[in-house]
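User: Structure tokens for both sequences below?

Assistant:
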Amino acid sequence: MKSLAIVMRQNGGPEVLKLEEIEVAAPGEGEVQIRHVAMGVNYIDTYIRSGLYPVPGGFPYIAGKEGAGTVIAVGRGVSEFREGDRVAYPSGDGGYCEVRNIPARALVKVPDTIALDVAGSMMLKGMTAEYLLRRTFKVGPETVLLFHAAAGGVGLIAGQWAKALGATVIGTAGSEEKIALAKAHGYDHVINYRSDDFVARVKEITGGKGVDVVYDSVGKDTFPHSLDCLKPRGMWVSFGQSSGPLPPFNLALLMQKGSLFATRPTLFSYIATRAELDESANSLFKVVQSGEVVINVNQRYRLADAAQAHADLENRKTSGTTILIP
């Protein structure tokens, strides 16, 4: 079967993302073949494209890790999925394409009440918010947290989810439009990091106490200032680096700033087993179905325009979630 796909043959800027026609074989043992309805665009895709993260399996590489669609064929040994099932995945290299094969162990079924374009936009980001708020640091009514990039894909989901858990939610954003968007999605306070000293504002908001946890996907531009926002024995969760990688630092810095905890988690460690994958996905589906979390698909691009989607994401021109449409 023929399929259009976005293929990378080298690292570089968005221009290395090329639309090509590929041949898709019949699904192998343990595999499912799906026809995409939507594929999510995520910062990790740009990290792999640029060379910041290694290219899984080498070149040529089909970009993209997240998508949703319909099963059109199953391979030998697959009993949990059948033709016509609505499915999605948060982690599967090769996502920017019309048709693909993927291991059945990577897929989950999507409830009928959730549109497939929404599912394709939310799996990686929503399940990231799930593990950050429920497992990396267990957020509850007593929690005061700071979430950088509050109007981003993970940020808008996390703000709503954290508010549903009863937390006091502080965020940062880079424009008045994004500040308003974040405030409409669970954030009690949103700081303009372009015009305000976010450390000083966090201290002001918390009466000098600081926050229990900082969720930081920005990286270079927010370090080490994020540490200065924390209470003694608070936790710094560095889960991305949209502004560039963190510099090496002496671990004694955590002691000096209040016996802080620090972690560099990734979703893939939190969904390593079938049980963990299902639990995380079902938690996400539940909060979306309940209306506690609304998924904003704010940008839609044709598959052929994947390079523009990457450029807009890296230039902070996007908010909420971004998808490619085959």
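Moving on to the next sequence.
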Amino acid sequence: MICLVVVTLYPFVNTLAVSLNDANDAVRGDIYLLPRMWTLDNYKYVFSEALIIQASFISVLRTVLGTVITVFCSAMVAFTISRQEYVLRKFVSISFIFTMYFSGGLIPGYLLIRDLGMLGSFWVYIIPGIIGVFNLIVIRSFIEGLPDGILEAARIDGAGDFAMFIRVVLPLIVPVLATVSLFCAVGQWNSWFDVFLYNSSKDYLSTLQYELMKILQNTNTTQTQSAAEVFANSANTNALTVTPTAIRATMTIIASVPIIMVYPFLQKYFVKGMTVGGVKG
């Protein structure tokens, strides 16, 4: 277990050390667990970009709304197709699963988004992925493992389907909802390609990941000196303040920290959801 922990944590600790080290000095290498020359210049450089704060807000907003809406809608559909009395459950399930293996492609998808009038809109981040098929299957498997007597008792007490879902099913499937929420949140937080496709001309709808990707591209194209040249010029007043290696490490830390902070609160639900969901009671 100690070896596993070391192998798992070392890359992150090393990346953190590089991000906190002077960029020109980091080119020399040999940075392992601690920075050789401590500095926050890499973070200052990244957050000096004008759109970073706005992009961070959009990323948080799309992560929160996207996760809540996707999980709730996926849970409703999963509850529907888990009911034996629903005569179209097999057809609907196959229709959803079919989309996991076949899609229209990038260009038809773009044309569909355009025809729906969602280009240049915040909702293009939410609506196209409002139902995740993998999440749907996971939630449905969990619901099918619930005792039938609980749902029958609710129906005898006069609860309708929606009331049964809200008052009975949702409280019982919190573990699997937490698991799926983590998947959705990570996907929303790390997504940038949809910004590139649909909202690249709308700076106020840009996300943190997309802005960090642009910073890295700009750094890679403008910082063309070799490692030997950078080291040789490190004493010069015109020496580089950032390098692609330092910026890449800084971006990795910025993008990872929010998810790392959320995960401990969901860990117990995550473990329970992944184990109990696969066993039918």
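User: Anything stand out in the second?

Assistant: Residues 244-276 form the longest helix (33 residues).
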